């Protein structure tokens, strides 16, 4: 239980750090957020949990295919805000579009014989 608490605290602290830094400097917050910290943490926890790097390697290889559809959020959100939609509506629509983009990529890759 202590191990899961440590994982949770470290992960939460990084998210809080990014949001607090972003309030002071959007560039620094964006730079820190652009680093795939969640992926790095996930791969690190996987390795610590299994003492085998294979699962982390498979995880990182699957992420590569999902980078492009994740950009949907960062394109749609500012466009929606600039066109007068509120923050929460813009965020919800952007998330929905991103989920749809993920499914589309997974579907197309499946048709090409690539399974994630």
Biggest sheet record: none
Q: State the helicity in percent bands.
A: over 70%
Computed structural class: mainly alpha
**Separation of the first and last Cα atoms:** 31 Å
How many DSSP helices?
Answer: 5
Order of helices and strands: HHHHH
Share of β-strand residues: under 5%
Task: Report the average pLDDT across residues.
Answer: 91
What does the radius of gyration come to?
17 Å
Quick overview:
The protein is mostly helical. It has helices at residues 2-24, 26-34, 37-50, 54-82, 87-111.
Considering the chains and any ligands shown, give keywords for the structure:
single chain, 116 residues, mainly alpha, 5 helices, 86% helix, flat
Tell me what you see in this structure.
With 116 residues, this protein is an all-alpha fold. The protein contains five helices and no strands. It has helices at 2-24, 26-34, 37-50, 54-82, 87-111. It is flat.
Question: How is the topology of this model organized?
Answer:
Layout: H1 2-24, H2 26-34, H3 37-50, H4 54-82, H5 87-111
């Amino acid at each position: 239980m202590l191990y899961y608490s440590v994982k949770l605290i470290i992960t939460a602290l990084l998210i809080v750090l990014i949001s607090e830094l972003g309030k002071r400097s959007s560039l620094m917050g964006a730079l820190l957020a652009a680093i795939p910290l969640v992926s790095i943490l996930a791969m690190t926890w996987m390795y610590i949990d299994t003492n085998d790097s294979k699962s982390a390697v498979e995880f990182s290889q699957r992420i590569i295919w999902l980078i492009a559809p994740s950009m949907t959020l960062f394109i749609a959100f500012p466009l929606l805000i600039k066109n007068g939609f509120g923050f929460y509506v813009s965020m919800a629509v952007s998330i929905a579009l991103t989920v749809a983009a993920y499914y589309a990529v997974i579907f197309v890759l499946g048709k090409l014989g690539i399974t994630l």
